[in-house]
Amino acid sequence: MKTIAILTSGGDAPGMNAVIRSVVRTAIYNDLKVLAIKEGYNGLIKGDIETMTLSSVADIIHRGGTILRTARSEEFMTEEGMTQALDVIKKFKIDAIVVLGGDGTFRGARELAKRGIKVIGIPCTIDNDLGYTDYTIGFLTAVETAVSAISKLRDTSESHGRAIVLQVMGRNCGDIALYSGIAGGAESIVVPEVKLDIDAIINKIKNGKKRGKKHHIIVAAEGALDAYELEKIIEEKGGIETRVTVLGYVQRGGVPTVQDRILASDFGYDAVNLLISGKSGLVLGYKNGKIIELDIDEALEAKKEFNKDLLNMVDILSI
Ligand code: F6P
């Protein structure tokens, strides 16, 4: 093992830079050459690659985004794209690649592994939608951003006596909505994993109003429903003035939280050490308080379990 490469792919996630820093520094400490592949798998196809030094990763641990840039590469999943990528790997004498991203990125890594390339995947996505790990890098930072939005929205919801629907990201996963809703003290949380009960939401708003409550925050995951549709139904069926805020890409940026930075540093360090010890074809995760490593196939097959108990708790805490 002489040369390892690193790339970030898919949606960026706060904490990716902390992983990059950890991989580069651990590799150089172990006398390895480190190559940066730019713009995800697109850079691997095009050969957009440069050598990293200790100072290439200075001053980035606290920055959101990814200094390597990122992309969702459709070309990589074609036979032609893969052939070009394999040529580039050969040309640059890359012995192993550390890939940072979510399930799409891991599917790309699995294709490389099938063709004999040594890869290690590190879970980086704000969605927290990978079943084999309790946390993905970027998730808790995105939740902090959503919680900060909830606090601000509560002020205006209270002042006007309106209900507010806050739409958060997460694709088909309701974790950002669930965690930010709990931490922000939301009255209702709507997620794709649990059937929507609009009457229950309307009754809750009405009961709250009866006892003098002015605000009502509904956190809705983007995968659950159209937030504007929900607004319309609450207004028409419940007669309650309602407004929508779509949080959008704000959730993808910003300073990574302490938890994200620590986990990112640990993942990067472990990835390089696993490669040095001869292991590959794996992804790293965090389960029950411990860092774990798992075969890429197994990780991609693991079904994400939604924590319904936490959601049920919200009904009691936000009564
Ligand atoms: O996967 C991260 C994510 O931000 C999702 O929450 C969101 O649905 C999607 O990416 C947006 O994708 P894009 O960056 O391609 O617009």
TrEMBL record:
The keyword DNA repair does not apply. Residues 4-275 form the Phosphofructokinase domain. Its main location: cytoplasm. Its EC number is 2.7.1.11. The active site is at 127 (proton acceptor). ATP binds at residues 11, 72-73, 102-105. Belongs to the phosphofructokinase type A (PFKA) family. ATP-dependent PFK group I subfamily. Prokaryotic clade 'B1' sub-subfamily. Substrate binds at residues 125-127, 162, 169-171, 222, 243, 249-252. PANTHER family: ATP-DEPENDENT 6-PHOSPHOFRUCTOKINASE (PTHR13697:SF4), PHOSPHOFRUCTOKINASE (PTHR13697). It is an enzyme of class 2 (transferase). It holds the Pfam family PFK. Allosterically activated by ADP and other diphosphonucleosides, and allosterically inhibited by phosphoenolpyruvate. Its cofactor is Mg(2+). It is found in: Cytoplasm. Keywords: Allosteric enzyme, ATP-binding, Cytoplasm, Glycolysis, Kinase, Magnesium, Metal-binding, Nucleotide-binding, Transferase. GO terms for cellular component: 6-phosphofructokinase complex. It comes from Fenollaria massiliensis. The gene is pfkA. InterPro entries: ATP_PFK (IPR022953), ATP_PFK_prok-type (IPR012003), PFKA_ATP_prok (IPR012828), Phosphofructokinase_dom (IPR000023), PKF_sf (IPR035966). ADP binds at residues 21-25, 154, 185-187, 211, 213-215. Catalyzes the phosphorylation of D-fructose 6-phosphate to fructose 1,6-bisphosphate by ATP, the first committing step of glycolysis. It catalyses: beta-D-fructose 6-phosphate + ATP = beta-D-fructose 1,6-bisphosphate + ADP + H(+). This is ATP-dependent 6-phosphofructokinase.
